[in-house]
Amino acid sequence: MENTRVLWLYIILLCHYHWFFEEIDGLVNLALKKPAIQSSTFLNLTASLATDGLIGTRSTKNECSHTGVYHRNPNPWWEVDLGGVHTINRVSVLNRAYFAERLRDINITVISQDKTVTTECAFYQGSVAAAAWATVTCHPGTSGRFVRIQIYNEAYRDVLTLCEVVVEGLSPCDAFYFRKHPGQRLNSQLVEEIQSNKPMDCGKACFLTTMCFAYNYNSDTSACQLLKIGDPCDTTVSDPGWDFYSNCLN
User: Which one, out of 89, 94, 162, 243, has a CA that is 20 to 30 A from the CA of 219?
Assistant: First the structure.
């Protein structure tokens, strides 16, 4: 019985931490599970249905947000609160499976924390195919706390339906992430050096290694240096080809 419990705990840990590590070297969905609002709401198709992480394209199954049909509010909008200021790289929206022609000419803006400054991320011109994604890349340096999506469609100007919205940017650091320091290498006590195909694998090795709290990774040689942090004399040096990843608790 005890061995079974240990096995299940190990499986749960691996599955749990895979979710955290899978985005270790890239962008994450900042909008996932975040609160959202919209200019009006049709029935119970609330704005939060577009940030629930469930990929569906039927509003009749409560899979999409939907602004009010009878409110006749021109240029309807949808907005997500990211919970803090972030640099935003890309925004993707998933269209509904039917009445798809309603989603077209999408204006995406980013709003500051105090809501006094609005910056254009990008404008998507034209229509979005049924049950398809539309993705835009924000202008470099675009940052803010709120992301607003708005349409200017004269034919269906009172209806905005979004089945899912993904806002990609760098993740805030928490206890389960490693913070990347590009082009830097940490001079610290080496626990072990191994070969890893990608930074994510190096991060997993660090997590599973006693006393490893950071690592250096070289994308050219696949070298993974598992490090122990704790000496105040530890320093970082500029070293092209290397990236230093620190545990966010340090």
Answer: 89
Per-residue pLDDT, 196: 92
What CATH number does residue 93 fall under? 2.60.120.260
What pLDDT was estimated at residue 130? 94
Residues 117 and 162 reside in one and the same domain: yes
- The encoded tokens of residue 6 equal 């240990």
The pLDDT of residue 15: 39
Q: Which residues of the chain have pLDDT under 50?
A: 1-25, 173-176, 249-250
Q: 163 and 59, same structural domain? A: yes
pLDDT at 136: 96
Tell me what pLDDT residue 37 has: 97
Q: Domain of 223?
A: 2-25+174-247
